[in-house]
Amino acid sequence: MSLLYEVKEGDEFGIYVLIKAADVRTARNGKPFIAFRFQDRSGSMDGMYWSATEEEINKFQVGRVVFLRGDRDNYQGSPQVKIKALRLAEEGEPNDPTLYVERIDMKIDEIKEQINDALFQIHEPNINRIVRKILSEHEEAFYTFPAAKRNHHAMAGGLSFHTVSMLKIAKAILEIYPQLNSSLLIGGLILHDIGKTIELSGAISTEYTFKGKMLGHIVIMSEMIDQVCQQIGIDPDKEPVVLLKHVVLAHHGKLEYGSPVQPRLLEAEILHHIDNLDATVNMITSVLDKTEPGKESAQIYPLERRSFYQPNFRK
Amino acid sequence: MSLLYEVKEGDEFGIYVLIKAADVRTARNGKPFIAFRFQDRSGSMDGMYWSATEEEINKFQVGRVVFLRGDRDNYQGSPQVKIKALRLAEEGEPNDPTLYVERIDMKIDEIKEQINDALFQIHEPNINRIVRKILSEHEEAFYTFPAAKRNHHAMAGGLSFHTVSMLKIAKAILEIYPQLNSSLLIGGLILHDIGKTIELSGAISTEYTFKGKMLGHIVIMSEMIDQVCQQIGIDPDKEPVVLLKHVVLAHHGKLEYGSPVQPRLLEAEILHHIDNLDATVNMITSVLDKTEPGKESAQIYPLERRSFYQPNFRK
Amino acid sequence: MSLLYEVKEGDEFGIYVLIKAADVRTARNGKPFIAFRFQDRSGSMDGMYWSATEEEINKFQVGRVVFLRGDRDNYQGSPQVKIKALRLAEEGEPNDPTLYVERIDMKIDEIKEQINDALFQIHEPNINRIVRKILSEHEEAFYTFPAAKRNHHAMAGGLSFHTVSMLKIAKAILEIYPQLNSSLLIGGLILHDIGKTIELSGAISTEYTFKGKMLGHIVIMSEMIDQVCQQIGIDPDKEPVVLLKHVVLAHHGKLEYGSPVQPRLLEAEILHHIDNLDATVNMITSVLDKTEPGKESAQIYPLERRSFYQPNFRK
Amino acid sequence: MSLLYEVKEGDEFGIYVLIKAADVRTARNGKPFIAFRFQDRSGSMDGMYWSATEEEINKFQVGRVVFLRGDRDNYQGSPQVKIKALRLAEEGEPNDPTLYVERIDMKIDEIKEQINDALFQIHEPNINRIVRKILSEHEEAFYTFPAAKRNHHAMAGGLSFHTVSMLKIAKAILEIYPQLNSSLLIGGLILHDIGKTIELSGAISTEYTFKGKMLGHIVIMSEMIDQVCQQIGIDPDKEPVVLLKHVVLAHHGKLEYGSPVQPRLLEAEILHHIDNLDATVNMITSVLDKTEPGKESAQIYPLERRSFYQPNFRK
Amino acid sequence: MSLLYEVKEGDEFGIYVLIKAADVRTARNGKPFIAFRFQDRSGSMDGMYWSATEEEINKFQVGRVVFLRGDRDNYQGSPQVKIKALRLAEEGEPNDPTLYVERIDMKIDEIKEQINDALFQIHEPNINRIVRKILSEHEEAFYTFPAAKRNHHAMAGGLSFHTVSMLKIAKAILEIYPQLNSSLLIGGLILHDIGKTIELSGAISTEYTFKGKMLGHIVIMSEMIDQVCQQIGIDPDKEPVVLLKHVVLAHHGKLEYGSPVQPRLLEAEILHHIDNLDATVNMITSVLDKTEPGKESAQIYPLERRSFYQPNFRK
Amino acid sequence: MSLLYEVKEGDEFGIYVLIKAADVRTARNGKPFIAFRFQDRSGSMDGMYWSATEEEINKFQVGRVVFLRGDRDNYQGSPQVKIKALRLAEEGEPNDPTLYVERIDMKIDEIKEQINDALFQIHEPNINRIVRKILSEHEEAFYTFPAAKRNHHAMAGGLSFHTVSMLKIAKAILEIYPQLNSSLLIGGLILHDIGKTIELSGAISTEYTFKGKMLGHIVIMSEMIDQVCQQIGIDPDKEPVVLLKHVVLAHHGKLEYGSPVQPRLLEAEILHHIDNLDATVNMITSVLDKTEPGKESAQIYPLERRSFYQPNFRK
Q1: What is the mean pLDDT of residues B135-150?
Q2: Taking CA atoms, what residue in C is nearest to B244?
Q3: Residues D189, D43 share a domain
Q4: Which residues cross the membrane (chains A, B, C, D, E, F) (predicted)?
Q5: Against a cut of 0.80, is the pTM above it?
Q6: Do residues A84 and A124 share a domain?
Q7: Cα separation, B275 vs B215, whole angstroms
């Protein structure tokens, strides 16, 4: 059975999908309709369900799996589903919502292994203990959360996948520039976004939490370091701890991007570059994946609304 | 005996002053000279000491009180001392350096009283306990530190004086806008700059500390709240605590001014306005105090280098 | 009988409201419908009237009072009326449009009294005469106009209400900072927005006038001072008059906000802060008034689209 | 006898010049010296007079003509005079200061003629009368003042010269774009900078006046129109008058350049372009005049510190 | 027979128009409709065609001429066609698409003559040969292309019309400022936008080409000069050639507007001003042409969304 | 024999150095002195030579090697030489200027090898031929030029060293993100700054050339590709060539940094990041190399004047 984004425009299909959003609105003829957003592992797509009955409105809730029959249509440049029929997936059918969540393209075990390997590059003992402790306390969330609500790595597991991808760059950079302090770079890198496990609500229908909105993941992260220091008896005023916090606090690179201090450590500056690079590659790649050779991609909002060109030749 | 800024241009004088800075440089004729900055309670003024001997260079160190004879001169629009003679203040003379430090114009007891009064407007019990605890722990520094290294309230006691001045505005505003939450506004106000007791080195020759440079007073303040919560057993995830932290974190008003989150509470927004207003009045007043009626003041760098006009009529 | 914003979502109601806007559009089925905006003292709300006849289009004009039966609905986060029936209010019913205009929450007499009291703080005789004369010439408009077309204090009487609210802050500030020149601050404050009585068209369906668009209220205000000087025989080149004009011209604080000169008087700078503070409190309060505890408000466009949080605890 | 800028570097000379500035400073050897700025019609140049006696300091005052003997030297890329001897010009010598003031390169009569010709393109009778009246009231200042304190056309007569130069462009543009309203364009153009006759102090050692600093020439100009309307009995609320004021108020083009309103008339927008164009040509030409072919000019501060290249080929 | 913009609101009409755009969408009732954009020489206007059949969708394609019967309607301030009937123009009817394309208001021969005249002001022989050669190679495109995809001179022939309009200003300016190098100014002016003949796809349904998107017309222009130098044997490192390229590369005036170098030649700076001036006049005039006296025009997006006022009096 | 930066403050020394700058100025006592800048492989340092004779001025020219005796002094935070004696290096002494030029820390052969290796990652044949041809034509300059006049890699050989350092990052990134087109990334990377061999004058006393100032290295590079295409018979409109040019043109990342087009290829965007990262590491490292543990470095101007902290612990 095919996936949402494998269907060609104009083709009819019948597939299982997850309801990601379901807004009930009133049509111009006065009758209610449901504006759906369907999702499977290939991505998500909108579709309108006209003249919905009260019963249908109650039945087709966010988080339910449905069997959807329809055509793939096009509305102002974006693909859309023209719904022909819709029913809830029944027992015996693939009705587990987690089957339909977009996921990263790498096994969890492999990710964990890479993170664990990286810990050995943290030679400074205080930083090593702090990073291990925080990782172990937030392990489950760290390996299942997205890296962001939208934009880059906004999928289940995206947070740890983004971290591993950055670690690969960091390892190469540590070899190229041996003057770098690996404890600060690797330690700061692993922790830099872990505050998102508290800033965001989780992998499914991700929202900002109350604490996330009021304090932000950068300050939350800094607090985690303090708590752990207190738990395992490390003086938070020691140079390595203050510098580790600095790396985390400064990793957005500029005040206007939300860092309360500008980078004043080489490693803090470099972490900002690596983070930026990986997020940028991820955003561009995810639109180019849906772009044919010789065409331009959809616009990417956080990259000044630029679209990108998919060349005809490879390599 | 008169003060530095009471002497008129061209007049000769002999007064006791503190050496605030003493840079040894080489003159174009190859001989060393000392570029002094002298200070008393009326302000500070530069003066060059030509052809200094090795002995004089060793004797006239920063922090020493000297008896200075000279003329008040003018160099490119700024007052300057033309040094005629210089000797260390001896025993029996007023040689205590603290006599020459610029101070705020209000008694400490009065300041303390106003701060204590304000605590009664913090009705929310968690916030009340947190604020009292932090105040008591940093009491000495809070009442002696300046509010900044330069710019506004950059004098001994400036930090608490600035806080009291803001409290007066806050009280008036609480009466005008009864919808404001006084626990958040007053609590946040008292704490908003207390992180400077750790960010700065003290009242004399104020510098940024290591922690101050690496973390900044906004994050330091947020950490103080966490530590105190842990000490007195308050859950830091309670709404009042999270909101108190938000007020402190957001009080610079914009990300580019160093707040890691923008104000999302009415009280955080208002605190930013009050802080700004008091700092602005202080900066303008301190230049207008040295400006004659009908003239323009010196330029104020943090206010877009504007100069201000001193009107001829009063009230 | 309840008001528009007292009805809960989903409830049916029947109430008298004013038609604030009535745009005739063509539905996708080709038939005309009316996009209404209804208003009473609690605020205003949209509602669509489908398949309108020619007669209905003629009858339901802006400015008419109607009896409206419907449900309170929700459209993309904003409350909306689902219209069940609509008829003009008849004689004997509350059909006076002025009953439905949103008004400030303070009696006109009280406002006038406060303004008159403030005049006694203008000790400089020229400024005092100018302010009294301008006030008396624009009295009616001053007490009925809004302070703006939208954003803050955009309601009948908003202009004088905003002025009085600012006067309260100014009085407190004059006590806290005795160095302020009260003639310039109070005089400038009372006049600062009075040019809006010429820039705007009035309290009902407020628009910019021709002069308002071409010259702006800041220059209009400056002209008013000149005219009055000429009428009552004051030399417009006298220092107090020039400074009063400066305060008015500079009160937007920065060139990019429309002031032709930057503040070069302490009082001009302070007036800008007070104006900003009162407008900000007003905008935030008016969205928080419609926000339940523990929730976030609607976004405020002039405040960088921020939403604000309504705490669960009071005071 | 040659002029200051006709002397080659390294050459000795003896010429009459005006003292434009004479700052008495103290040298590092403790003795006073005078930092002179000399001027003749070719430009102005600095020179230091070492070990000045009290008598010399009193004698060589700003505004006096002196006979100067010296070498042309070079200090960090700028020409400088190395003073050999200096004495006051005596009776019978060319000691009239006005002989040494930099002047525009056009006769006053020619300028007046061009301005008078342009008046005939103001067909709208109200605008015509207003412009004529203002011109006649400020005639003397208009033909002797500079157009600015520094930057462009900062020389005696520069104001009217700049106006005539702009008029030439305006006439060409009126022919190219017949849709333009010549009354508004020509009327606004002639008046646009006339407020400088009040904003600035005059042709010699030009400073901002009190009114200039507090109100700025844009608002001063708008006031002039009001005064004249009142004097000659024209209703200031008539469309042509309001639009003429708009053209003047908006001619800086953007709020951040000091216009209280943005251009909302085609003619206001065009006037801004013409003003900009003439000022830019004037600034670049005045540095290129001192630049040899194949070399780069001095940097121009108001043009983003750019330097300009003088080509080797002409036309 | 009248034109689209000659019909008054509410009037019924029957006229021939070109289909400029035809988007097929699904109405809320599930049926397809066509969102048309019709065009004739007076401008273009939208209209919805409800419940379109498959056959109609195939028939009414972009580029076809149709006979349109309808009313002129108004939708949210913009004119709109309410379609009553629609059929393809038949043989014997005016069905040539080029009849309906908006065109400039000047004959091609006249334009060519003016361009040819201007060539005589390019005295420098290398520049003269380069400009003539490039012109002759791109002659057809140069006289038929628009000057832009939208905004200013976005009509057939707009590129050469814009060039001639700028030439008129340049000629006047060369007389006013004789210091200008006419070879560089006129040569650069004629070439400045000729790269658009490669950046854009043509006069009808103008799009950016692949090269246009990837390199931009500024670099394309610079390459043209190189190619021509190589073809006619001119050394591209000669001063006149390098400067001609500079003028073309720098004519956007600032890096952020897409010039890879800032103007460092007086002529490059001036060309930027002339370009700007003509584009601005064109944009404002085209909205004022559709604005009644005493009213405000539509907003112009590239001019900070300003609207412009159409005065009641002429000249 | 020690180097300039190996001498401690206050120590006396006698070493051979190159004269990098020698400005003759007049001291306040009227006598000429020479402001020297001396250089050896450890860096460069200023020193004043008082009361210079005509003969000395002629002898001590830029580019000469001298034997310098003096003390290491400190002037306003920067190290300075206090000159005791100075004489030209004689025959038999190390008087070859190239011995004193600051050089990169890598052998040329190693650099060449790395560049040659990288060519094998350019699989697209047209790009491969273009890159090889340009490299071979500019080989000597490519391996001896600096990467910039100042800021980063501003030393002999800096251009190729910077390129190799970037290649190392690029290789790592190509492995991490296999979706990248290595022909475009590696080809664009090798060429991206090669235009500097024409923009700059060479390794010693580097200046911008005439073409460099007028066209800039980005456009020069684009021209090189065109010339080479023409020489080796490749159609410059082929997709790979246009894209290669795009990568080079867009590598500054934003218009305001001098790219005439924004990146629209993933590889162009990535190249910008790699360039930025390597330049940043180079700038920070070169100030941290001169900073002791626990101290702050000098400020780096292109990095918002930030200083960086040198941690006490390594790795």
Answers
A1: 89
A2: C311
A3: no
A4: none
A5: yes
A6: no
A7: 21
